[in-house]
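Mods, move this if it's the wrong board.
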Amino acid sequence: MRAERNLNAGARPDRRAPAAGDLAAVPYADDGALTDRDFERFRALVRDRSGIVLGPHKRSLLRARLDRRLRALALANFGQYYEYLTSGAHPDEVERFVNAITTNKTDFFREAHHFGFIAERWAPALRQAASRGGTRRLRVWSAACSTGEEPYTLAMTLLDAGLVPPEWDVRILASDIDTEVLGRARAGIYQAERVEPVPEPLRRRWFLRSRRDPGVLRVRPALQALITWKQINFIDEAWPVRGPFDMILCRNALIYFDRAGQRAILTRFQRLLKPDGVLILGHSESVLGLAEGFVNLGATIYRRAPGASV
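Not the wrong board. Structure tokens:
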């Protein structure tokens, strides 16, 4: 994304995983298979830990992901793994569990029209306002950033649009629930084919080619210096962020929450935006029916209305 979590594509938002307390009547068979009881318990656990709603058709995907954890821990069946996770004695494994059930899809300059908006409309307006005495302090949040292509694209776009330190105080917060992909994002190392969507001038300016492996490129430290990386779970009561933000990008993440979850996240985003701050969602997402106080700028780009009540 932003990262896209390919966990629940096509699932209906009202097909919720049951709460853990509703599972007593589901049969369990200790035969090494992912039983109905196993599946419902893990669906409930995924929802409780991440807010993500797994559709029934994701059973085979869930089994494949969790089977790797069973092998790693030398456990005999999924029932044992569930007890291992919920015992309270293995918090590190709970983190690995969450990482295992999230699939992250992202690219440099994905949904390129969003970055066109930033470069051609948003950044020029900021420069014009600054020329009249406005602020040169810019705070942007790339929420659900996956392996980092989105925040690095943001940084390249902002700098290429003339919002260059030290004249401009630019900081990008990049977050994801998945600690594994955050580690890869922070490293900023990519196979050359992953970087192909980056225009050649920007690629030459902002990437270093590995001497040992010409097929590997690394983001230059000057670009990395603009970005702060944090693990953030959208359902946590407190987010370790400090607003207000000039812009928040959360693309192709909300679709994996039910409507109540979407509404809660959007309300919190709205509170963290400046009165005229911009929110950018994924191509299949919208604030319609979920959050008021946004002005639709088109192409899933929204501006917080200055008088919006939060």
